[in-house]
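Hey, quick one: can you model this chain's 3D structure?
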Amino acid sequence: MELHYWEKQLILYTKNHFERIDYDKDLKYFPAELYGLHPEQVELYNMLGMVVRLYQKLIDNGHIPFTLERFISENFRRAFRENNKHEISHKHILRQILAEISLIHVLDDKGKRIFELGEIDEKLNNKIKLEIEKRLENTL
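Sure thing. Here's the predicted structure for all 140 residues.
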């Protein structure tokens, strides 16, 4: 299975290779880079589209076991833990998908590499770090 550059970057991100993980603030940078947009131009459907396509590819190639029953029940559990309600939002779905992507194996049982993910994109990592610094300056 071939992974595209930004799919690899997204996997690295879910596996904590970047400076921080804050899905609500960071995810917009991935489709912005992929589609050549400014982060302010990124809409929810851009982020969901990129994440769902990778998720489906990993399911289709046997890297993520999927059952609709488990997916829905996990989302309801997450929603109830987070807001004490049985209401699922796009954030619950997105977080569930990203959590499952983060658990994929990069090596097989014998230690052979399944995916060659490479290194994190330093330009992207620096954009995320710069946003962190801007927020810190604004809070002082």
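One thing worth noting: Residues 122-139 form the longest helix (18 residues).
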